[in-house]
Amino acid sequence: MKRWTLHILIIVAFIITSCSNKSVEVYTSTPSPLNIPQLFQDKILNPVIPIDNPQTVEGIALGKKLFFDPILSADNSQACADCHAPENAFSDSDRFSDGIDGSLGNRNSMPLFNLAWNYDEKFFWDGNTFSLEHQAFVPVTDPTEMASNWTQVEEKLQQHSEYPNLFNQAFGTSAIDSTLVTKAIAQFERTLISSNSKFDKFLLGVATLTPEEQNGFNIFMDENKGDCFHCHGSENNPLWTDNIFHNNGLDNTFTDLGLGAVTGDPADNGKFKSPSLRNLAFTAPYMHDGRFATLEEVINHYSEGLKQSSTIDPLMKKVAQGGVQLSVQDKADLKTFLLSLSDYEFINNSAFNNQ
Amino acid sequence: MNKVASIFLFVFITLVSCHKDNDDNVSNVNISLHFTHNWDGIPVSNSDFNALKFTNENGEMLSIERLRYLISDITLTNSTGESLTIDAYNLVDVTNNGNLEFSPEVLIPTDAYTNISFTFGFTNEKNIDAAYQDLNSASWFVPAMLGGGYHYIQFDGKFLNSSNIEQGFNYHAIRAVDNPGANPTFPQDTFITVNLGAVTITSNIVFNIEMNIAEWFKTPNIWDLNVFNQSLMPNSTAQIMMFENGQNVFSLKSTK
Prior knowledge:
The complex is a heterodimer of chains A (355) and B (256). Chain A has helices spanning 3-18, 38-43, 57-67, 80-83, 132-141, 150-159, 163-171, 178-190, 198-203, 211-221, 229-232, 259-263, 295-304, 328-339, 344-347; strands at residues 122-123, 129-130, 245-246, 272-273. Chain A is an all-alpha fold and 355 residues long. In chain A, the strands form two sheets. Chain A has a two-stranded antiparallel sheet. Chain A has a two-stranded antiparallel sheet with strand order 3-4. In chain A, strand 1 and strand 2 (129-130) form a beta hairpin. Chain B has one domain (2-255). In chain B, strands 4, 5, 6, 9, 10, 11 and 12 form a seven-stranded antiparallel β-sheet that branches. In chain B, strands 2, 3, 7, 13 and 14 form a five-stranded mixed β-sheet that branches.
């Protein structure tokens, strides 16, 4: 063997033996991109996923556990799901939700679905919070809700038998803080996708509308009748909301300023976010303050009950006459159509329930 | 030696074949359209919204609460009559100061153009129902019973009506339509080709385009908001009047 060959062999042997079996442990959670429904894929822009909080299997599972766990509240008595119940499309059947001490808020709990498609990322009825992660911060410390504080919550989670390991699996650290808690909850909430109503299936060609539902849809889309589409979507915007803030003529004067209290602009007084019309079968009562117990009351409001005010939206029609003056039959058909937007598979999806 | 000579010959031919074409004076540049708004010369921005501070040609006091409009197909025509059309659109959102500047991702050859134009709205060929995800997401669509496609403008506000009561109006322009329903018919085109005139483009350039909002109510049809205020989308008479009044709404104010 030549000398240079020997040298090479020695160097290679040295390199090989210097490599130990010790590997640097870099933990990575399992990516779990959102399963975007066909209609959403076809019709609207992609969902908003923060670059610093990608969806992962472990993050979603952790978020779900936290969502249903009363540990986030001061006295361990109330979970997110208490006011955002799956059977109510993650809303509350009570007009106002009660906090851990029985105190009541002044707005109806918003349903939770398709939140990743809220492109402006303004959350709550008045849009006071930007991003889903920041939204999840709020109820934990709200004195009329969970009335806790984040130091206490972090400590409880840190001392828990399971959570440190679950956070490690989700985020690569067992040091729990509020940012990671809200990131996990937001990941779970983004999975709450509702896209399997009867009307969705009609659009996909696998269901047929009744004549009443079809007429109700026509009323919804007819600018001379319901004119609902300007704020509440259409077959081309399957969110069934514009996620924008409007004064829809509920009051002559305002006890709750809504968006106006957030922006400080009197022109925004009395404006609240258009809610999605999906899942109305499960989300009564209606409006930001839950004042209407039934869909009939809602439709009557737009037909005959509009109230004039300085900030009423110009899209509200025939305000001087109280509204769009629908016939009894048109009202009934409109209600039938609206109910066709309810997604029973969504509320029964085991992935979204506390199982 | 022959091999070396061949290489030198090849290099020499390559070098001498490089000469300066006249075409080399043409370069490609970026253009931008910047949209500003006025009411008969008085600048208007969203800070002027929500107050009855404007008076239209018919004498009605009015406010602006929401103003969005679509432009598409910027077209440059050169001296030989050739046209270069940029296949892109822009939804100007004055309410939220959105998209007031539009810079298409297309490079334009420098030239002395005899005209620059754009389409207000979409041409019928491009006004395809549900085709544009961003416009669907912005709730910019037109109901299928009215022919589908998209709005050209949404201009909402309130006016003092003849009873001195504030009333809403929705000046929404679309493709004019008759017989709403399963088989609508279209009496005439109502998208507008906005001609801005001759421009010479020598480097990157911004076109400052003004919309005189008052013109929507003025020429040739003096708009009576007491007659035409809401539910104008299915009203082909109103749509054709909007088309006529929209002919002189836009102008090229300056370039920079």
